[in-house]
Here is the input.
Amino acid sequence: MLDAMTDNESKLEEAVDAISDKAYDKALSILLPLAEEEFPGAVGMLGFLYLCGECVELDAPKVVELLIKAVELGDGTAAHNLGTVFSAGLPGVGQDAEKSKYYYRKAKEMGAQYAPDEFYE
Here is the structure.
C-alpha cells in the first residue's frame, strides 16, 4: 500500500509538472486513471482542469462534483478551490456566500490555508 501511495504521489507530481509546462493533455492522461482510483489530489486537480477549461471544456457542474468528491477524500486544496468557485460563481453555478465561507473554513481546517486568518472568518 505504501508503494502504491508513493507511486500515486509521484504520478501526481508528474501531472503538476505537465500543467506547469502547459502540457495539459499529458496531465489529463495521468490524472484520469488516478482519479478513477479516487486519489484525492488527482480528483481535485482534475476539477481544477475543468475549472480552467484546459484540455477539457469548462464544465461548472463537473467542477463542483469533482471538487466536492476531492474534499470528501481529504483534499484541502479542493475545499479552497470550491470556496473560490462559490465566491465568484461560474456559468451554471451561481455565487453563494454561505457555501463559499463553508468551503474556505473547511480548507483551513484541512490545512489548506492560502491567505491570512481573517480571510477564513
